[in-house]
């Protein structure tokens, strides 16, 4: 029996996950990539497109091996009752932490770039309130919202950047491939750690109306993520130069500020900001939902809803606490987060998948189709 | 100002309890009630501690510390 | 809806009521509200050097109230009130200056309306980076704001510059700039471009130069004197001076080293591929001139690296049309005459470009971005020579310039006017 009655379509899963990854990725990744790989940042995006696609394969087949079950439940099957519970609590804490980081990043951005005099905690509290309300209403609700909003967001962003093409200087992308493999690896790890947040898809597969559509999702999500990212990275380097892109805190925001068509179609950044607030909201909603489901399953509760509001209080406090200042945030995202994120996002599915194969638990998707 | 903030936290905690607890007062929902209380207590404790400016450990610093040996290898400081 | 309300518990209904009461409070106000009346709309910022380590920052602000008055009463002929004011502040750095500015007058400085940052010559020679740092951190300022370097003091330009025919100097600058860009006298450099050039290997930034010129010689081309219609009136107000934006100041590693003259500036523009209907006047047959209106179509710079040093093949392709011939013997419809004009045009452009290259070698500033081309083609070599590029290698590079000028049209007329005996 699933905790969440809500049934969602495979397209909703696609938009939910893409939206979740893209929302924060687009804010920070271009600066981090150019910091490590300079003007070769686009090569890193290409590498991660391939690696990310492969990364998604075991995750999705793991989810399909245990139809209708969340990772906590099949964690219990594989690791024993207490092992599974511990894993559930750990995953819950991880997603909770990532949610707090995402809220804090956006609030920091709003304070730095838009409203410098408003206290940080006000943004965080109002934001968490909206998120908690959405999560309380259920997965279906914010799945539908992201299905509507994300394509609009992406479309507007891409349409806006078309106007920047005349002012780009593609020479700034030269010389090509001058960075060492180690520098490219650093960039790839950073990007993959953001990409790995897609692990939350494990909690969505059991809620899918038609799980048989899941296998193609990793391909769709990877393309839907990386093509816009590639466009943005190339544009930012061709607009500001690699050095300058890595120095700017929010290069995508600066890029959109540059849009000016015939002197009257400008100041697009307010649109971007509005969409950012909504997409990050949806991102945090999904992460928070995942955390709550994890906790509820581990504590053997029938419903996750009683945890939502008290959890929101903790989320607000944690978001204020999580970074002492912007420098720490940037330092963490650039150095510790890739390793921390990847060790959880890669470690957990690999552990579960190899255990499932070794102990021959669950039925593989292909095996079930043959029957 | 601190007292006002504390009052605000207590009001929020009270509102959340008022909203949620009546539905949880059935014997078969004991587990939920306990989990709810624990979560709310943790959150309130955290918020109160931060309002009173007590030294609350920063989780990010902890993670940075744990991963520091590996971080140094792959991402040497700039 | 009614049923939904009925089925709600009392507590839930109370919560709903509470939310309805509380939410409008959030909408009503926030910390970052701005009142339009309490803002100083900074349009131009001028930064000068003041003493060994201080800056003199001049803020030019429009006064919206005066602006409205000026427009309604402008036609009357009565002396209009200036709709702008200047505040000069001596401070340690720009940020400090903004603080002092906000002490000096009651309003909060708003930089969203800024069009131009003007840097005084003295300060630019000392280095532009320290004073620009403030603007990279200021959220309200966009990277598309223009930067210029003043000949002399930036404060003088703001205080003495006459905005006519506009009423606000910033508008005057903007209009003049766009116009002069169209006719290839200068080109805008925005803040973002300046920063990305500063941080790019093998290229030095250049900035358009702004200066005050006496009103009588309004011409900018240097080849001729033009006189304005209302000479008489201007002689009376002799101290008023016009803003002139022409030529460039070039930097070396973030410090101004020299101003270019008109030929060198033209050469720089040809190489940037940024020319758009620039007029070149070339000798036609006999003692007469022909004018060509041309714009650059393609510029290609390829470095050839050999044992002896560096050679740059510069290939410029220009297209345009004949705008004037002063000699009835020259007929632009005849292929050989047109060919001759094309050749003359090529020669003129070649001279411009050569002058720019010479200047670059002379002042040892790579504002043409030749080093960048080496960095792009051979980054490893650049690592070795990059440090010494400007002082040791640049003065000795060879350039091989080929200009290809194609005249496609002859304006509205075909041949020249022929008097019939």
TrEMBL record, chain A:
| Superkingdom of source | Bacteria
Q: Which UniProt keywords apply?
A: Germination, Membrane, Transmembrane, Transmembrane helix, Transport
Subcellular location field = Membrane
Q: Output the Pfam families linked to this UniProt entry.
A: Spore_permease
**One Gene Ontology term from the biological process aspect of the record:** spore germination
User: Where are the annotated coiled coils located?
Assistant: none
Topological relation to the membrane, as annotated: Multi-pass membrane protein
According to the record, the segments passing through the membrane are: 12-36, 42-64, 85-103, 109-136, 148-168, 188-209, 221-243, 273-295, 307-324, 336-358
For this record, the Gene Ontology CC terms, alphabetical, are: membrane
Q: Does the keyword Disulfide bond apply?
A: no
Q: Does the keyword Transmembrane apply?
A: yes
According to its UniProt record, which protein family does this protein belong to? Belongs to the amino acid-polyamine-organocation (APC) superfamily. Spore germination protein (SGP) (TC 2.A.3.9) family.
What is the protein name stated in its UniProt record? Answer: Spore germination protein YndE
Annotated source species: Pelotomaculum propionicicum
UniProtKB/TrEMBL annotation, chain B:
Where do the TM regions start and end?
6-25, 32-52
Q: Does the keyword Transmembrane apply?
A: yes
Tell me if Transmembrane is a UniProt keyword of this record. yes
Q: Which UniProt keywords apply?
A: Membrane, Transmembrane, Transmembrane helix
Instruction: Write down the superkingdom of origin.
Output: Bacteria
Q: In its UniProt entry, what is this protein called?
A: Uncharacterized protein
Automatic annotation (TrEMBL), chain C:
Q: Where can this protein be found?
A: Membrane
Q: Is Signal there in the keyword field? A: yes
- Its domain of life? Bacteria
Region annotation (Disordered) maps to 215-235
Q: InterPro entries, from UniProt?
A: GerAC_N, Spore_GerAC-like, Spore_GerAC-like_C, Spore_GerAC_C_sf
Query: A biological process (GO) annotation for this entry?
Result: spore germination
Coarse class of the primary localization is: membrane
Q: How is this protein positioned relative to the membrane? A: Lipid-anchor
- Per UniProt, residues of the Spore germination protein N-terminal domain are 32-212
Q: Which residues form the Spore germination GerAC-like C-terminal domain?
A: 250-411
Family per record: Belongs to the GerABKC lipoprotein family.
Q: Can you name this protein?
A: Spore germination protein B3
- Biological source species: Pelotomaculum propionicicum
């Amino acid at each position: 029996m699933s905790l969440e009655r809500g049934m969602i379509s495979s397209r909703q899963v696609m938009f939910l996950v893409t939206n979740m990854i893209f929302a924060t990725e687009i804010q920070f990744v271009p600066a981090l990539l150019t910091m490590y790989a300079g003007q070769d940042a686009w090569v890193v995006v290409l590498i991660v497109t391939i690696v990310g696609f492969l990364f998604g394969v075991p995750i999705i087949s793991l989810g399909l091996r245990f139809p209708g079950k969340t990772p906590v439940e099949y964690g219990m099957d594989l690791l024993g009752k207490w092992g599974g519970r511990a894993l559930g609590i750990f995953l819950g804490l991880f997603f909770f932490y990532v949610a707090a980081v995402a809220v804090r990043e956006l609030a920091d951005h709003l304070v730095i770039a838009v409203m410098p005099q408003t206290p940080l905690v006000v943004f965080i509290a109002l934001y968490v309130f909206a998120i908690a309300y959405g999560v309380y209403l259920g997965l279906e609700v914010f799945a539908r919202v992201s299905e509507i909003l994300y394509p609009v967001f992406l479309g507007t962003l891409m349409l806006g950047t078309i106007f920047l093409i005349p002012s780009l200087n593609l020479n700034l992308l030269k010389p090509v491939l001058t960075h060492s493999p180690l520098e490219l690896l650093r960039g790839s790890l950073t990007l993959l750690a953001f990409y790995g947040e897609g692990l939350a898809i494990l909690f969505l597969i059991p809620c899918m109306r038609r799980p048989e559509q899941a296998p193609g999702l990793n391909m769709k999500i990877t393309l839907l993520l990386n093509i816009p990212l590639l466009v943005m990275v190339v544009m930012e380097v061709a607009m500001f130069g690699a050095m300058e892109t890595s120095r700017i805190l929010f290069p995508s925001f600066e890029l959109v500020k540059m849009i000016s068509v015939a002197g009257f179609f400008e100041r697009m950044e307010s649109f971007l900001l509005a969409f950012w607030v909504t997409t990050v909201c949806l991102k945090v909603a999904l992460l928070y939902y995942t955390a709550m489901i994890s906790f509820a399953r581990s504590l053997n509760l029938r419903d996750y809803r009683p945890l939502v509001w008290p959890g929101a209080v903790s989320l607000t406090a944690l978001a204020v606490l999580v970074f002492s200042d912007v420098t720490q945030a940037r330092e963490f995202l650039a150095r510790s987060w890739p390793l921390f994120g990847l060790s959880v996002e890669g470690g957990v599915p690999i552990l579960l998948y190899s255990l499932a194969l070794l102990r021959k638990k669950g039925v593989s998707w292909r095996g079930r189709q043959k029957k | 100002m601190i007292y006002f903030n504390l009052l605000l936290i207590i009001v929020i905690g009270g509102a959340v309890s008022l909203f949620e607890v009546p539905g949880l007062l059935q014997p078969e929902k004991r587990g939920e009630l306990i989990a709810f209380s624990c979560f709310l207590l943790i959150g309130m404790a955290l918020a109160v501690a931060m309002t009173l400016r007590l030294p609350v450990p920063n989780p990010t610093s902890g993670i940075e510390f744990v991963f520091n040996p590996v971080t140094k290898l792959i991402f040497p400081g700039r | 809806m009614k049923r939904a309300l009925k089925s709600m518990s009392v507590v839930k209904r109370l919560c709903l009521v509470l939310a309805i009461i509380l939410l409008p409070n959030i909408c009503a106000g926030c910390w970052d509200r701005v009142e339009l009346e309490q803002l100083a709309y900074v349009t131009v910022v001028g930064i000068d050097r003041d003493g060994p380590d201080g800056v003199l920052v001049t803020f030019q602000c429009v006064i919206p109230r005066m602006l409205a008055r000026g427009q309604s009463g402008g036609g009357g002929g009565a002396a209009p009130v200036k709709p702008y004011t200047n505040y000069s502040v001596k401070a340690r750095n720009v940020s400090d200056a903004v603080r002092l500015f906000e002490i000096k007058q009651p309003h909060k400085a708003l930089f969203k309306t800024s069009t131009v940052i003007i840097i005084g010559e003295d300060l630019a020679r000392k280095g532009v980076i320290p004073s620009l740092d403030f603007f990279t951190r200021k959220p309200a300022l966009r990277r598309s704001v223009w930067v210029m370097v003043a000949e002399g003091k930036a404060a003088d330009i703001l205080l003495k510059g006459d905005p006519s025919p506009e009423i606000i100097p910033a508008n005057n600058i903007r209009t003049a700039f766009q116009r002069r860009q169209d006719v290839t006298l200068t080109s805008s450099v925005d803040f973002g471009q300046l920063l990305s050039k500063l941080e790019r290997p093998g290229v030095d930034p250049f900035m358009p130069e702004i200066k005050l010129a006496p009103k009588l010689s309004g011409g900018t081309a240097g080849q001729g004197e033009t006189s304005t219609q209302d000479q008489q009136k201007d002689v009376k107000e002799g101290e008023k001076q016009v803003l002139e934006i022409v030529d460039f100041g070039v930097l070396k590693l973030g410090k101004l080293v020299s101003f270019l003259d008109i030929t060198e500036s033209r050469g720089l523009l040809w190489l940037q591929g940024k020319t758009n209907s620039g007029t070149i006047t070339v000798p036609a047959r006999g003692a007469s001139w022909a004018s060509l209106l041309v714009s650059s179509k393609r510029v290609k710079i390829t470095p050839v690296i050999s044992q002896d040093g560096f050679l740059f093949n510069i290939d410029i392709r220009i297209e345009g049309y004949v705008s004037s011939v002063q000699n009835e013997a020259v007929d632009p419809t005849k292929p050989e005459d047109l060919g001759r004009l094309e050749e003359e045009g090529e020669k003129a452009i070649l001279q411009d470009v050569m002058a720019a290259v010479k200047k670059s070698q002379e002042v040892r500033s790579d504002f043409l971005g030749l080093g960048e081309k080496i960095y792009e083609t051979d980054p490893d070599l650049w690592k070795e020579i990059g440090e010494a590029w400007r002082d040791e290698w640049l003065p000795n590079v060879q350039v091989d310039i080929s200009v290809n000028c194609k005249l496609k049209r002859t304006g509205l007329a075909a041949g020249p006017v022929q008097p019939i005996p």
